[in-house]
Amino acid sequence: MQIVTKLIPTKLISSQSPPILQSQLQGVERVALLRLLDQAKSYPLTLITAPAGYGKTTLLSQWKNRLLAKNIPLAWFTLDESDNKAEQFSHYFASALAKATGISLQDIGYQNSLIDYFGRLLAQLDQVQSHFYLIIDDYHLIENSEIHDALRFWLKHQPNTMSLILLSRLTPPLSITNLRIHDKLLEIDVHQLAFTPNETRQFFEQKLNETLSDEIVFSLCERVEGWATALQLMILAIKQNSELIHFPEKLLSKLNQLHIADYLNEEVFHYVEPEVKQFMQRCAILRSMNEKLVLALTKDENGVKKLDDLEKQGLFIQRLIQDDGEIWWKFHPILASYLAQSCRLELPNEWQQLHQTASMVWLKLGYGSEALYHAQMLDNPETLYRILQENGWSLFHQGQLKLLEDCLTHLPSEFLWRDENLVLLKAWLAQSQHRYQDVLGILQKFQPKAPLTESFQGRFDALRAQVAINNGDEEQAYLLATQALNNLPSEFNYAQIVAKSVIGEAQHCRGYLKDGLQIMQQVEKLATQQRAYHHWLWSRLQQSEILSAQGFWQSAYDLLKETTQQTNDFHQIPMNEFLLRLKGQILWEWHHLDQTEAMANAGIELLENEEEQVQCLALLAKSSLTKGDLNNAERLIEHCRSLLARSSPHKDWVTAIDEVQLIYWQMKGDTQHLESWLAQAHFPAQEHNHFTQRQWRNIARCYLLREDYEQALRILNSLLKTTAIFNLVSDSQRALILRNRLYYLQGKPDLAQRDLIQALNLSQQTNFISAFVIEGDLVAQQIRQLLQLNVLDELSTHKAQFILRSINQHNRHKTAHFDEAFVKSLLENPQVPELLKISPLTQREWQVLGLIYSGYSNEQICQELVVAITTIKTHIRNLYQKIGVSNRSEAIEYTRSLLRMMGY
After folding, report:
1. What is the pLDDT of residues 234-250, one digit of tens each?
2. How far is Cα 151 from Cα 139, in angstroms, rounded to an integer?
3. What is the chain's alpha carbon radius of gyration, rounded to the nearest angstrom?
4. Are 580 and 606 spatial neighbours (Cβ–Cβ below 8 Å)?
5. DSSP per residue over 382-449, as a string?
6. pLDDT tens for residues 14-43?
């Protein structure tokens, strides 16, 4: 057969990626990989291996352009199937060398041995002094062992002035291990080539001219594991329907419908034997696999070897080595989706049996969640029913809530409602996700055909006790839980944990904090023994709330911090949101506002149901109010109100929003909504816990804003009496701060001062800051007076000074307003007094003027700015002269006029 001797020019220039990538990926500069490639000069061989579409050629094209810009010699040789002929390979190889080195090699002819030919080429390269690169693309197409042997020979004798770079979908047989051992190989694999989230963001924003959230970027990148081709196909789908960018699952579904099958058939399965494809299809129904699963599904004794071969061929499969050394495998998610779909279409008679087999094997291996996944695929629900019967509760305790919800929804109703065990499971799934109305509906719908056994009655009583505590009926909850404990035999450990947990929560709600804390500690111990993760976590969160109510906020936070570290492997929704929110509430009290917002936002990320995000949104609004950002607070409050209108929220959720709403109205001086709020407000029957204490404070604040001081005072006096009886330290401090406001507005400064001092002293235990800051000017004025009178002890003085600085920082019309940006804007205002333009204040003088306006004495200004009193007096004298005033009162009025002019 005649060998082609006239060379095709395009094979000796930079090979182009498939059109789908070539024009699209060039704009994303792979900085880290390009930097890594710069090390290629130090290695005889650089090997870049990855499946099709990972941007190997595009990356090398970028790097080639950088080298050419520096006049570094290189040549590019792209292979196709015809290059498996040794003589043809030799012609292109020599031509590429000649181009890179400038040496004529035409006199060297191929004479039946490629190794001999390479030896004569190597002899000619001795005269090359400058370093050069030879790039060979698509080396996976070479199957001729003569070429592999010759290239091994070449690498052994390759001159130091040359670096060879191979691009391949699989690892070539070139003694790669030996090269690794002797540090003569630079490798870039699929993991390095996969696009990072930052590169994904850059890619999408270049193509769509749209800024994407971190959530969307990470979601898209994670789902395709950084596969460049999939990212580009997403762009094509999004350009057809822009809404898909916000729904990753729909986008991937659309992707599979549109282009993936065509791409994989052309670029991957064109080179795969039909029986190998069928082997992959059978395996692909598994989300991960080991030897036992592969054997069961394929009946192939050499299945693991085939998986090993697939990996070597670059067919989108990854091995996972467990800690115990066992080897597992998984397909790339895009390929797995394609294979699973094609399996259903091309092997329809096997589809159901494959899932049935997989479900049974997973059960034997002890993976109930995977068994359920496959059981859902079956037309016959018996397998699903049986697995739920045997494994449902253990999966519940492991936090597999969504999977269980999906399975119970998939299960026909005649299977569900005839089984007390599954009805209980369904109810607890709703309870654990705070869907209290659903729990009631399930209990009402369930009509057992025969009287329940004593043990089942006990389990249902435990659930009804939980429902009662949800509804705020702690007395009924206590009775039902006690009754459940009496009926439950020892083997029903979970129901006993539930009942005991409800008793602890009931004691908490009844105000018996010490008793409630001890019971919750017992629940934690029992839940740990029984591996009931859900109630272990619940008991920890309840303990934290009780410690907070007792005023032990540092202990509460330490408990939550420790709990967070222990829950890293779990994704309990919405329980983990509660954990994050509790931490955020503590951080808010301590005035760590940025961290508060981070916790609230993290909680929102965990919740799929928008209506459940209300409490985190309320916390964000509260943080905005504390910062003085009323516009953002208003937006968040309105959003919360709209979410509450769409659901049946727990009254504690409403109380949290009402608290923020009333503080917002207080800051705005808005009294028009108070009557309507009071008309629909819930008036709790008691005030023994922090939930009902907060609602009564809301009512008292409403009366306060209406200037109905007697009603407000009656409520606050009652609250403080109750907090003393039940040791509700934190609620006592909050009530004192609110009563301080009341006394101050009533013109009773001595009583107001007494409450403020007592509240500040309590801060030595609780470390409360924001509860003072959010009350704003009124507290600031009193604190300045206390500091001037020097009546506080050292610790309370330190707290007071910090509170004062925080109030000034977050009130826009105070000193924080006189920063450089504000001053620049002020001086550009055409209404600004001419004298101020002619003789502008220094930045320090602006600070001093702001502190004067805020009511600071000269001594307090010294403390704030940490300068000597003589320096402050000099600043005051200078700024008085510049603005044309003669005393403090005139300076305050002058500043007020400037702020009015600027719209404050």
Report:
1. 888 788 777 777 777 77
2. 11
3. 36
4. yes
5. HHHHHHHHHHHHHHHHTT-HHHHHHHHHHS-HHHHTT-HHHHHHHHHHHHHTT-HHHHHHHHHH---S
6. 544 444 444 444 568 888 899 999 999 999
Q: Provide the annotated binding site.
A: 50-57
Q: Are 775 and 741 in contact (CB under 8 A)?
A: yes
- Around Cβ 566, how many Cβ atoms within 10 Å? 12
Judged by DSSP in three states, 134 sits in strand
Q: Is residue 616 within 8 Å of 604, Cβ to Cβ?
A: yes
Residue type, 50: A
Q: Is the pLDDT of residue 900 over 50?
A: yes
Contact 77, 137 (CB under 8 A): yes
- The DSSP 8-state label assigned to residue 12 in this structure reads G
CA 657 from chain center: how many Å? 25
Whether 85 contacts 113, CB under 8 Å: no
H or E element at residue 167: strand 162-168
Q: Which residues are annotated as a binding site for ATP?
A: 50-57
β-bridge partners, 47 = 166, 187
**Any idea what DSSP says for residue 289?**
B
Q: Which residues of 383-393 are buried (b: 16+ CB within 10 A; e: fewer)?
A: bbbebbeebbb
Listed by start position, the domains of the chain span 9-193, 197-251, 272-346, 349-447, 451-530, 681-784, 815-901
Whole-angstrom distance, CA of residue 601 vs CA of residue 616? 7
Quickly list DSSP for 72-97: --EEEEE--GGGGSHHHHHHHHHHHH
From the list 836, 851, 840, the residue with the least C-alpha distance to 805 is 851
DSSP alpha helices (H): ranges in 242-332?
248-255, 261-267, 274-284, 291-298, 303-312
Backbone conformation region of residue 325, classed left if phi is above 0, alpha if psi is from -120 to 50, else beta? left
Q: What is the mean pLDDT of the chain?
A: 87
From CA 67, how far away is CA 484, in angstroms rounded? 78
Could you give the CA distance from residue 333 to residue 335 in angstroms, rounded to a whole number? 6
Place of tokens 């329980």: 575
Is residue 159 classed exposed, middle or buried when 0-12, 13-18 and 19+ CB atoms within 10 A define those classes? middle
| The two domains 9-193 and 815-901 share their CATH topology (first three levels equal) | yes
Round to whole Å and give the CA distance between 774 and 663: 8
Q: Which CATH number is associated with domain 451-530?
A: 1.25.40
For the segment 434-472, what is each residue's pLDDT rounded down to a tens digit? Answer: 777 888 889 888 888 888 888 888 888 888 888 888 888
Report residue 654 as tokens: 């409403």
- The whole-number pLDDT of residue 59 equals 92
Question: Using CA atoms, how far apart are residues 709 and 751, in angstroms rounded to an integer?
Answer: 14
Q: From CA 584, how far away is CA 593, in angstroms rounded? A: 9
How many Å apart are CA 501 and CA 843, to the nearest integer?
Answer: 59
> Looking at the domain 272-346, which fold is it?
Arc Repressor Mutant, subunit A (1.10.10)
Query: Cα dihedral angle (877, 883, 885, 886), rounded to 10 degrees?
Result: 10
574 upstream amide cis, omega within 30 of 0: yes
Contact 51, 258 (CB under 8 A): no
**In Å, how far are 41, 155, 183, 288, 837 from 162, measured between CA atoms?**
8, 10, 16, 43, 70
What is the Cα–Cα distance from 473 to 481, expressed in whole angstroms?
12
- 9-193: CATH superfamily: P-loop containing nucleotide triphosphate hydrolases (3.40.50.300)
Q: What pTM was estimated for this model as a whole? A: 0.58
- Name the fold adopted by 815-901: Rossmann fold (3.40.50)
- Count Cβ atoms within 10 A of the Cβ of residue 862 and give its class: 0-12 exposed, 13-18 middle, 19 or more buried: middle
Would you call 696 helix, strand, or coil by DSSP? helix
Fold type of domain 681-784: 1.25.40
